[in-house]
Amino acid sequence: RTSRWQVECRHDIDTFTPGFLAMYESLKPSEEHKTKQQQLVDSLTKSVSKEWPDARLHLYGSSANSFGTSHSDVDVCLEMEIGTESTVEILLKLADVLRTDSFDNVEAITGARVPIVRMSDPESGFSCDICINNLLAVANTKLLKDYAQIDQRLLQLAFLVKHWAKLRGVNETYRGTLSSYAYVLMCIHFLQLREPKSLPCLQAMEHTYTMNVHGTECAYFDKVHQLQDFGAENKESIAELLWAFFHYWAFHHNYKRDVISVRIGNTISRKQKNWTARIGNDRHLMCIEDPFETDHDLGRGVDRQTIRILREEFERAATMLQYDDDPCVTLFEPYDYEN
Ligand code: CTP
Ligand code: MG
Q: What pTM did the predictor assign?
């Protein structure tokens, strides 16, 4: 008897590739979207520089890592010297400045792990989160962007997975599921493990880029134009990869034993990371190591109930891709909270 994870993909899986590619194209942000985003950045820069002339503004997250859809928000990081003032004081002052400059719904959210000001842009309607000196996020944004340039199937896969996660209600960290950032890392990890590989492990290669953020070294090979053909040996189509992705997380990954590590390009054991017991709020039921902040588990909000929900959703998706007549539709059916 073959176990479930040894199941082979259906033979007609490639009939769905054009449908998935069309979907990917429709999720990509338009040129108009990018122009509006730039206008928002420009008007924000103007507001900020009045109060903090030396502040530098960085875009991070999906508006800069190339994994953004037309529904994504705009994430901005202000880099500035702070003297005796606390980050929270600066955020409160920033909120005042933005209100004066007639941005909408300005709100300082100071109790979060990363305190931010949230607002929306009256011109574009985009929602925008602003944080201070969160340069690790700026560094991991560049890492994701560089990975995306190696094999276009990463972007295709990640767009479809993010879209699926949003519609199925499993992209909500405040409810104990996973962030978009975590899903992209899962996609990279998965493509690093294909045979033949679709993606390399950039942090294990020669370090051509180094950025030191408060003592944390962010270093990896960033000359990705040299890696354009890296994934060429791997001929898998996007439909096959999407099926294999869900199959991997449903049946293959060893949640009890392993930590997903994009930094290593493989899994490492929870024992080795000392992520074996619950520490404070970190339950470590699904372990995803941040590539730079290596003691940060991106799955730390996952609890006993949501790990079950996540695994059921992975299984549902794999099954639909395996047996359904129209998986391009059924895969993305919105989760019905009522029933
Ligand atoms: N981030 C991080 N650590 C986390 C969560 C997020 O460093 N635990 C940083 C990452 O740089 C990430 C950014 O914050 O890219 C924004 O996170 P998130 O909103 O989850 O992802 P986006 O890529 O912006 O996706 P979306 O399109 O859903 O906005
Ligand atoms: Mg975002």
A: 0.96
